[in-house]
Amino acid sequence: MHQARPDQVAQGYDILRRLACRDRQAETVRAVGGPAAFQVHTRRGRVGIHREAWPARWWRALLPQNPGKPGYLDGITDIGTHPPLHRGGFPWHAIALEGTKRVSRRLADRRRAIKPRFRTLRRLWHRSIGTRIISIDGVRLRCGPDDLPDSVRNYLFKGTYELGERLLVKEIVKPGSRVLEIGTGIGFISLLCTRIAGEGNVLSFEANPALRRVIEENYALNGVRPRLEMKAVTTDGKPIRFFQNDNIISSSLMARDIEAKEIEVESASIHDVIESHRPDVIVMDVEGAEIDLLATAHLSGVSGILVELHPHIVGAEKIEALKEHILGQGFRLDGSRHKNALFVRDNAGRA
């Protein structure tokens, strides 16, 4: 199937004439925004590039390589603004690791479809046999109809629940890492972090009191117990309004255009939490509250931030401003998956 994007399609007699001469195909491909190594495709008088034809290591065609050091760049200090990448529309496909200029393909790898196969069949199968406990990445979770809403159960049955977040967690959390999670949900990510980092190293906060039972049952089911605080995390530590929705993934500290019951919950100050727990890694999924929390948090000693971003709630401008704020503190964007962004920083020291 032809899947060339509009900026990768050239039309007209001149382009077709150039394609007739194989020696000028590279020029044609450059004209539609791709490197010379890309394959061209013609169909019904149009010129395009198949997405499926992009080579797995296509960045070699875009970036000057150091002939003496395979895999290293030659003379580029900021690959994120390298013109060929922007012309091709993919500034996120490759990054240069600071100090080495070594190309990393991890960003490109994460963008590929890596969802579990036969997702719909899995969902139908689990529903038909009435599955009440499911295992994902070695973590056992309750998934009965009296435990979770159908939307969350379907994600669990398909194996896609928190897929992007858990993939990035497995990259940033190491044995012995001290992890602060804000937004426990059903307890899956805190359990996954505990499996990796070790018991006693994970502190998790959840503002929604309706989730306490399912969180504690999931903890008991796995025989481990991350430290759980049933509180919100705020900038000042004062009690705060919480908008509780029947769908747990839609409850939030932010007022939204959805039906929700307004309640008051206790909170802990982000400054006090970081000061007492001293995390290496912060994992945050707070339905829009990430803007205020990360803008005011003292991040000395933190080497990794994994945050789910919510532009549909707070707006794209605030998300971009937050990214700039994090990058300004010495972090770099090391990967993204769906709405999740992973920022890392080397040699994070504590004040």
Q: How would you explain this protein's 3D organization?
A:
There is one protein chain. The chain is α/β, with parallel strands linked by helices and 351 residues long. Among the domains are: 1-54, no CATH class; 162-344, Vaccinia Virus protein VP39 (Rossmann fold), CATH 3.40.50.150. The chain contains 14 helices and 18 strands. Strand 6 and strand 7 (139-142) form a beta hairpin. Residues 1-25, 31-62 and 76-113 have low confidence and may be disordered.
CATH class categorisation of the domain at 162-344: Alpha Beta
Shape estimate: globular
Count the beta strands. 18
CATH homologous group name of the domain at 162-344: Vaccinia Virus protein VP39
- From the 3D structure, determine the CATH topology of the domain at 162-344: Rossmann fold
N- and C-termini, Cα separation: 56 Å
Strand fraction band?
15-25%
Sheet with the most strands, sense and barrel status: 7 strands, mixed
Low-pLDDT parts are: 1-25, 31-62, 76-113
Which architecture of the domain at 162-344 per CATH? 3-Layer(aba) Sandwich
Helix content: 25-40%
Structural class: alpha/beta
Strand order within the widest sheet?
A: 10-9-8-15-16-18-17
- The number of helices is 14
Radius of gyration, taken over Cα atoms and rounded to an integer in Å:
23 Å
pLDDT averaged over residues: 75
Q: Classify the oligomer.
A: single chain
